[in-house]
Description:
Elements: H1 10-22, H2 26-38, H3 45-57, H4 61-73, H5 80-92, H6 96-108, H7 115-127, H8 131-143, H9 150-168
PPR repeats: 9-43, 44-78, 79-113, 114-148
Protein name: Pentatricopeptide repeat-containing protein
Organism: Liquidambar formosana (Formosan gum)
Amino acid sequence: MLEEGVEPDLVTYNTLIFGLSKLGRVKEARKFLNVMAEMGHFPDAITYTSLMNGMCREGNALGALALLGEMEAKGCSPNSCTYNTLLQGLCKLKLFERGIELYGVMKAGGMQLDSGSYATFVRALCRDGRIAEAYEVFDYAVESKSLKDFAAYAILESTLTSLKKAKEKGRTI
Length: 173
């Protein structure tokens, strides 16, 4: 591109960072984050979220959380997709305390998870034996009308009911 006299724009950088992150080439993607800033392009929520997603896929959810701090320090506001990505990454690594903290930040900021992220978070909490916290998250999802479809509601309700019964009977979750 540069050889042809065409300067990459934000969309070009976002596409590169997304693709590299998806391929597991997070270090290269991170370099493009720095290059784009040097070229006068400011990363947006899509840029950061793409990189965070790649980091979470590599098992580096804590690094992705640090990137969230960097993102906010540079004046870029995270969106619900950013939070969904981080929360799913934290749950995958069983970093529930961090997930609960992040969920609290989201709630305080008026952000909502999507149905899939609620399901992931509730299941992860249940599997860790945190039934009360899972119900709290589920209740908030229902009250805030975040569960847009009946299927998501039914899956979450079924998961919670089954796991609660198993725990009451003394079975391991």
